[in-house]
Write a structure and sequence with these properties.
The complex is a heterodimer of chains A (164) and B (193). Chain A is mostly helical and 164 residues long. Chain A is built from eight helices and no strands. Chain B has a domain of 102 residues: Up-down Bundle (AhpD-like). In chain B, 58% of the residues lie in helices and 4% in strands. Chain B has a two-stranded antiparallel sheet with strand order 1-2. The N and C termini of chain B lie close together (8 Å). Classes of the chains: A mainly alpha (164), B mainly alpha (193).
Amino acid sequence: MDDIFKSVVVEAAGISANHPLASVLAGRDEVMQLTQAAHDAALKPEPPGGLSHGERAALACRMARLNDEATLARHYEAMIPEGSEPLFMADPAFIGGDDNRAKAILRHTDLVTTNPKQASESDVSTLKAVGILEPDIVRLSELIAFVGYQVRAVKGLRLMAAAT
Amino acid sequence: MSEPITDFTTAVPFWKPRVTPVELDKASEEQLDAMKVTPSDTGVGEYVLVLAHDPKTLKERTPLFNGIIYSHGGLSRTETELGAVAASLVNRCIYCAAVHSNRYNQLSKDETVIEGIFDSGENADLDPRQQAIYNFATKLSQCPPEADGADIKQLTDAGLGMDEIFDLVLTASLFGWANRLMHVLGDPIPREA
């Protein structure tokens, strides 16, 4: 069993093992363990398929920034290999340059992160049209969806800690 | 095939994938394990077969989902469903909203709450506890999340303990995940065309 107080979500929320909320978190120990396991599965899967670990970290950093979640953004930024291509993707102002694959991935990531209610059939076909394989569409979707969960769990825990 | 549903409903639709599901008889050991498929089990839904394209996250997601929604202690099942509905309305996931509003109605034996929310959103006539839960889950589901200390106070004033608030945080967050899969990877289709 791993220590949930060393997990990404609990550390980002700033809750340590001697915090008054520690017993509340311990009551959901399995959920927090699985949250960390899901982080590792979405960010560092082996093999990574058509989305490299660097791209995943950069996209997660981008999504954290779109959510004003600076602590998680720093965590993900540190996971991007230095000087690598994906580094650009972490900047929400970068929309892909003249790379059609990058443009499609960034457009989809931004839409589903910030405004999921607007996502439609054509957004999935756009990914297919630039040659992204269906398993990679699912991998990208899980990464986006996981970060959507994670930023809210961190925010909620931080609010709980502030009120305790 | 009939057109996708665009209005919120408590009648659970079919889910029609936009990505080709994995074929069960061609699935790898890892995919079968992630889907928790036993050799005699052929009733695997299209949604799980789509997610099986990424077995590593699916394997963690399923027990995580069950651990948040069906866990004992903390927030009641009924109030958990209310949090799930609130998030699903923000993200406009017709399928998730139908499943969880339907369960809310079954568990609470009171259809007026969901009717009020579908019709009037945040102006629905809810009791203070329902209002606090609905309000917090709605605000946490925005991007960036908009919940703040006053929303936590509304929850504690309405009588929720920190263990219940934690479950509400996890539930609303979890639907920030589930909605982004179901609403993006498929369409809700009426069961009776």
